[in-house]
């Protein structure tokens, strides 16, 4: 097999003649020179072709080279800090494998709808390349954190016969004459695994059939869900903040170049360090009410509209997107909101013994208005109480018989949380919409490519 040098490895070949295999990112020419930017997936390198030194075939290939043509190019590596990546290649030979007339995504501006229709090609752009490299390093950091802290990776099923939070937002499918659903969470299965291994996590795709077109929602997204036996709520908060600090600081270290290319304010990411503020649900409502009163007549139209949307659900209800945005704007770090009313949360959450009507749970709200990135709770460990909660939520006891077994046989206090990978990437990259954080986004109006 022929050996090609990767652009990311050119630093090890200064002064040597090497062969690159890649695609023409763009090209410009002068009277005596062709400047060809070649990308190979690991980086971009400027290839300089001195026209008078080229033979007739090489000149013809360079003259007719189009954007995204696939090619093999040979040349001598030079250090040049002015260039992307810091190196350039003085070309000695070129071979074009496939030229590309009429490439759809030209250097001119294109609308988002057009780019999403051509997502399979849009992935090749520098911006999308940077985002997906950040995603890669974030995923690696997530796994490293749990591996280094004694967790076992347990894969949860994607097809499930019961739902963690009811079936209203699930995709239903026929499963050999039974109803089955695409999983919205691996949590219940992680609770079973935690009773076997103590500290576990699952990491995979989840599905929500919410009819939402907001900038924060996908119908298919990736979630990591740790579950820990013998852990209560406050310790779970500590774990969550250690986890978020680790993955953000790791990505910042590994992907500074990509983040700077995206125009991200690095100082805001450097500030993501534990401890994070903790605010009770009631304190959050007070903060929101104060913001609403102060901004309803604001001259700043955006702030006025935001104030109008705050607390639309009313006190005692779940927080909405505007509420989370305001809370996130109030702090320069992620903030925990804990102990929500029981009626707005899932059946499996443990009642707070010190606050009747509240449950032992928290959401982590990102700063800068990026909303909820983590949802968590201590789980109900008492068999009889859990039976009552399942009935109160009009769920089937038969469907949850296996789950109830976990409370029959060696039940212990346990807690866990879920982090949505795409929302975390939106936040770390400073993006305005979640659709760019996943290679092929699935939304209400998007099932292809």
Could you please describe the fold and organization of this structure?
The structure is a single chain. By secondary structure, this protein is an alpha+beta fold. Helices cover 33% and strands 24% of the residues. It contains 14 helices and 16 strands. The strands form three sheets. An eight-stranded mixed beta sheet has the order 6-10-11-16-15-14-13-12. Strands 1-2-3-5-4 form a five-stranded mixed β-barrel. Helix 4 crosses helix 6 (233-254), helix 4 crosses helix 14 (421-429) and helix 9 (281-295) crosses helix 10 (301-309). The radius of gyration is 26 Å and the shape is elongated. It starts with 16 loop residues before the first strand and ends in a 20-residue tail after the last helix.
Keywords:
33% helix; 449 residues; alpha+beta; 14 helices
Topology:
Blueprint: E1 17-29, E2 33-39, E3 44-50, H1 56-63, E4 70-79, E5 87-98, H2 112-117, H3 119-122, H4 126-148, E6 152-153, E7 159-160, E8 172-175, E9 178-182, H5 187-197, E10 199-207, E11 220-229, H6 233-254, H7 256-261, H8 266-270, E12 278-280, H9 281-295, H10 301-309, H11 321-330, E13 335-338, E14 361-366, E15 371-378, H12 383-392, H13 401-408, E16 414-420, H14 421-429
Parallel strand pairs: 3-5, 6-10, 12-13
Antiparallel strand pairs: 1-2, 1-4, 2-3, 4-5, 7-9, 8-9, 10-11, 11-16, 13-14, 14-15, 15-16
Helix pairs in contact: 4-6, 4-14, 9-10
